[in-house]
Each structure stands twice: as structure tokens, then as C-alpha cells.
Amino acid sequence: MNNHYNNSALPETIGGKVMLGNAIALAATAFQNKTDKGGKPYILHCLHVMNKMKYEGDEELMIVAVLHDLIEDTGYTFTDLEVMGYSDRVINLLVLLTHSKNISYETYIEQIKSNSEDAVKIKLQDLRHNSDITRIKGLREKDFARLAKYHKAYSYLLEDN
Predict the structure, then answer these.
(1) Which residue from 82, 80, 113, 81 is spatially nearest to 96, judged by alpha carbons?
(2) What is the pTM assigned to this prediction?
(3) In order of start, what are the domains of the chain with their CATH numbers?
(4) Residue with the larger pLDDT of the pair 142 and 12
């Protein structure tokens, strides 16, 4: 287990559920001093995706959205989240949204689509924001390749099953 957090400062809960503010604080701490490809604070991407999910009227989806890159891009683990009190639903969605290096990107996207409509909603917002070329400083060939990959994934996720 990772010791990124202080056990005496576990997140506040209501009815045993971790609150959105705690998830935002966790993401802000985890991504402190990290920047995106455009040099902006990385937390802004997490907050953007979370903010797009507010229209779903589901606080747990907003929690998943703000934490969607946590496991993949920081030292936090799913066990850490479990100990902190995050719900099974939140953790299961984060498992789906975390791209394991053991599987191809295509398989990762297929697993999202075949397992959870909620994960698809979050991934679509993530891909939409990641495809915004105004967030990238000086487009290079590898950026165009990544954008093409994101476009293919986005289109696939929108297709009817």
C-alpha cells in the first residue's frame, strides 16, 4: 500500500460515501507541480472533465471524472482509494478508465465500451478535451498521430453496439 495520505486525515464521508470535495483535493495534491502538454497545470484537465460530468447529476461520476488519471499518472493505487473509503462503483469505474500497459490502447477502449456506459461518458469527455489542439504547444508529428488515435477511439465509443 502507498502512503501518499495520512491515515488520521481520511476523507470525510456522508452515509459512508466520500465527498466530491475530497476527490478534488486528492487530485489537486496528486497532480501538484505536474503540467499538461501545453504547460498548464494538469489539474485543470481533471477539473474540466469533472465539470462536463456535472450535467449527469451524479456526484460519483464527477468523482470518477476528477480522478480518471490518478492511478495511471501518479503513485496512487486502487488499494489506496479503497482504504480512503471510495465506493466500489467509483473504484470499478476507475479500473476501467485506467489504461494498463499490459493491453493495447484499442483493447482498453473496447473494454470501456463493452463494460460501462458511465465509463464511456467520462472517456468521451476526456478524449474531447485531450483532442483540443489549443492545449498543445507547437504541434509536432507525434501530436497528430495521438490526435488521430483519440479521434478513432472517440468515434468507436459513439458507435452503437
Answers:
(1) 113
(2) 0.86
(3) 10-158 (1.10.3210.10)
(4) 142
